[in-house]
Structures are given as structure tokens and as C-alpha cells.
Amino acid sequence: MAIKNYTQTFTIRGEDFEVVAPALFNKNDELIYDQKLDDQAIEIANNAYRSKHGFIFPKEIREFRGELGISGRDLAALIGFSPTTIVMYENGALPTESNSRKLKDLINNKSSFKNFYEANKSSLEEPAQKKIEDYLNDENDLLETIPIMKIVDWFRIKNIILQKSDEYVEDLTQMKVMKLVYYAQAVSLHWYGKPIFSNPILAWKHGPVVQEIFNEYHGSYSIVEDLRSEIPEELLKNYNELSVNKKMNKVLNFVQEQLGSYSAWTLRDKTHNEEPWINTIQSSVISNKSIKKYFDDNFENIF
User: Fold this and answer.
1) At CB < 8 A and 24+ separation, what contacts does 43-46 make?
2) What is d(CA 20, CA 4) in angstroms, rounded to the nearest whole number?
3) By Cβ atoms counted within 10 A, which residue in 27, 89, 104, 202 is the most buried?
4) Would the pTM count as exceeding 0.90?
5) Over 60: is that where the pLDDT of 141 sits?
6) If you average pLDDT over residues 241-269, what whole number do you get?
């Protein structure tokens, strides 16, 4: 048996979508049913439908529910859906057009969600209400103008912490931290509509760069050698300050978990395949607007 790409057409709500996806074949080159591969092909077709019609994606719902900290049943109860509807949508079922529109509005517009919650919170048990109210009260927890070097130091200290538990973790470099702070900015813009630092991000030859970081570490390879024996008290204070900020901590840890194991050159190549860098004149500023639009449109595929 062998797995190879196979082209097939799926009809979704009266529309045909041609999909090229891996499929299983026997030694006679006959197509064999495989649940996992077939489900993947169906999901590709469903995503094509979602993209074409601007429907919400499962990951958007999962991320939002994760921010709220409530169950799928609780979210369904709040919105007025049947108990298992949100679970089905998160697992890949296509929502109706009206349900998709309603979910997108509540997820992307915090003001709409707050007003909707206040009008419908009686549909939830008290524990779920408290979690949502904590989320709403936390809305401004993310600082907009964190000094960029504090964010760099967070990644430096995290690198040292990880090295102590895993000998294969490599030293953080100037190029790599440039890309990590770029993706942290992008995630914050996507999740919260706010930047986490005010420094401009420049489109240099080797990808997005923040001039202040370059100035600080120009000519250096490792940027953690001075922390190996002891981490200064001031840096630990900065690290803890960002770590106790719920939204900041969520952004930084997400980027670290998703991209921290990649090499600097892999991240450099990744940025070179993404529109914010591609569409910016070299050495010019990559605007937050362009970053947010691209990551809003492609977040699920990027990560």
C-alpha cells in the first residue's frame, strides 16, 4: 500500500470543490478507504467553503472558548444553540450562515460580546458567569507599550530555563529573538487587536527586525551567555512582571510553544513566505495594520 496525492471533488451545499489530498492506494493502484485521510480531505474541502464564504473556522471557536474558560455546552447555552452545537462546530461541522455570522461577530467584537453577555447571562450557571466576567474584566490587562527589551529578556530567560531541563535546547540568538518578538506582535494584534510594543518592525533582508534589538546585540551570536551562571534580579523582575499579566503571558508562551523549537533560519524563511514581509519595501516599516490583516486571515494555517 502507498499514500499519494489524489484529486477528488466534494459537493458542499450545492457547490463543487476540487481537492488534492493524500489518499491510500493498494499495490494495484486502487483507492482504499482510510478514515483519517478521507476526513482530512473532507476538512480541506470544508475549509475551502469557509474561506470562499467567510465562514468561521473551528480553531477560532476553540481559541475564543479557551479565552473564556467555559465548556462548549456553556457557550452554546449563552448563544441559544442546542447543547452540542459548539462541540460539533469545533470538530469541523459547518455552521449555518446565520450561526457563523453570529459567532464571528461575538468573537471579533468584544463590545458586542459584552453587551450580548449582559443581556443573556441568566442562561448560564454561576461558575460560567464568573469565568466570563473575569475575562471581560481582564480586557485591558494587556499593556500596549511594553519596552521591547523587556520582551526580549522574557525570551532570554525562558531559553535559559528550558536549557536547564533539556540539554538539546540551543542558545537564543539575535536573529531568532527578532522573529519571536515579531510573531508575538502578530499574535497580540490577532487575538486582542493591540500591539505589545510600540517599536516599528522593519522589513530587512533576513526578515522582520526591530532596530533597538539589532543595536543592542549587533555582532553577537548567543544572547544568553551572560545569563548562564546567574540571572540578574532586575531581569527576573521583568520576567515575572510579564508572566503575571494574563494576556501577555498567554501571547509569549503561545509563541514560545509554537515556534521556540525552530531554528533562526527556519523562522527567517517562514517570514519570507508571508505577506507582511513580502509586500513591504525593504528597510521600510511593516505596518501593524498589514500584520493584523494577514494573521486574521491566515492564523490557523500559520500556526
Assistant:
1) 43/92, 44/19, 45/10, 45/12, 45/17, 45/19, 46/12, 46/92, 46/94
2) 10
3) 89
4) no
5) no
6) 92
For range 34-40, the mean pLDDT: 91
Predicted confidence (pLDDT) at residue 109 exceeds the cutoff of 90 = no
**CA nearest neighbour of 43 among 29, 62, 57:** 57
Return d(Cα 298, Cα 24) in angstroms, integer: 29
CA atoms within 13 A on the CB side of 20: 2
For the purposes of burial, counting CB atoms within 10 Å of the CB of 156, is it exposed (0-12), middle (13-18) or buried (19 or more)?
buried
pLDDT per residue as tens digits for the range 113-132: 888 999 999 999 999 999 99
* Distance (Å, whole) CA 14 – CA 37: 23
User: Left, alpha or beta for 247 (phi > 0: left; psi -120 to 50: alpha)?
Assistant: alpha
- pLDDT of residue 143 exceeding 80, the answer is no
The ranges assigned to domains in the chain are 2-53, 58-137, 148-302
Please state which of the ranges 19-28, 200-209, 258-267 shows the lowest mean pLDDT. 19-28
Residue 270 has a CB neighbour count (10 Å cut-off) of 16
